[in-house]
Amino acid sequence: MIVMNLPDGLPLVADGLHLWSPGHPGTWGFANCLLVTSGGDAALVDTPYDRPMTEALIAAARPLLAGATVGTIVNTHVNGDHTFGNGLFPGADIIATKASAEHLCREPSPAQMHFLTHGTPADEPLGWYAREHFGRYRYEGVDAVPPNITFSGRHDLRVGEIDVELIEVGPAHSAGDLIVHLPAQRVVCAGDVLFADDHPVHWDGPLARVAAACETVLALEPEVIVPGHGPLMSPEDVHQYAAYLRELAELIRVRHAAGVPAYEAAADILTTGFHDHLGLPERIVILTAVEYRHLDGGHGEPDLVALAGQAARWAYERRGPGAGTVPPSG
């Protein structure tokens, strides 16, 4: 069980921009958030996964707010690890894409996440995996607060004297991804279009759409890119990430053309040592299943829990010595 050592401050990224980056590679749920402050106004890009993490962010941000309140929240997409903290900012406008709002119904709720981490069998793959990666979070007393402002394409706003451009790039990681461009600061907050340090997870795809979203980020010519998870990235890091996606898409395509079932294809790709310096290799199982759905011409909604269950199966089958003991959920 990872101890939740959370940041007690928000380092400066650029003028008016401060980063909440809880780190913890090799697990799920520790998403980056970006605080934007100017002239007594404040906005937050994404919110943490549960109440304790959100309260820790609020405490760390308090010296930077100087009595101001966060009046705007931008959700880059509606996965819970980027939105479950929304309710701790009463009165704030919450902005997301129209597509995100329309697909909220398929997202696991806080109550469902609590059940996965407490009510599923701990000696079966999904129950074991849920406790391993999500058992540290407190889903009780959390309400999934939806956006009250939605858009398609592009939406501009100002936070004090800072111009903020919201650009829709989904479907990619999810059905309704957006990126946040701060042109004067030459910063892009990319949400889960980008991951650093770990293999990514993308629920909607195909991978070509995620790579295209990376190209949209690069076309804005930022100096600094904030990924959804992990440390800050450079434009070269984004180029390498897009190359990773294209390489993986081709590996999957070849196995699909040969008639290899998706789970077996993912396992085979992993045996080659594909980017084995990255954490959470089981996410390749999810990426392969999603890519197969597109290659098969499928247009249905992805089942996020079922996909996670496939990844859990792969990880469960490869537990090391002593890994059969499920860690406590507290």
Structural description of this entry:
This protein has 330 residues and is an alpha/beta fold. It has 9 helices and 12 strands. The chain has helices at residues 51-65, 98-102, 110-118, 125-134, 207-219, 235-257, 262-271, 283-295, 304-317; strands spanning 12-14, 17-20, 33-38, 41-45, 72-74, 93-97, 149-151, 154-159, 162-168, 178-182, 187-195, 224-229. A 7-stranded mixed β-sheet has the order 1-2-3-4-5-6-7. Strands 8-9-10-11-12 form a 5-stranded mixed β-sheet, with helices on one face. Helix 4 (125-134) crosses helix 9 (304-317), helix 5 runs antiparallel to helix 6 and helix 6 crosses helix 8. The longest helix is centred in the C-terminal third of the chain and has 23 residues, at 235-257. The model is unreliable at 321-330 (pLDDT under 50).
What is the terminal separation in angstroms?
Answer: 9 Å
Which stretches of 5+ consecutive residues score pLDDT under 50?
Answer: 321-330
| Secondary-structure-derived class | alpha/beta
Using only C-alpha atoms, the radius of gyration works out to 19 Å
| DSSP strand count | 12
Tally of helical runs: 9
Q: Return the average pLDDT rounded to an integer.
A: 94
Please summarize the sheet with the most strands.
Answer: 7 strands, mixed
Helix content, binned percent: 25-40%
Share in β-strands: 15-25%
Major sheet: arrangement of strands: 1-2-3-4-5-6-7
Order of helices and strands: EEEEHEEHHHEEEEEHEHHHH
The best one-word shape is: globular
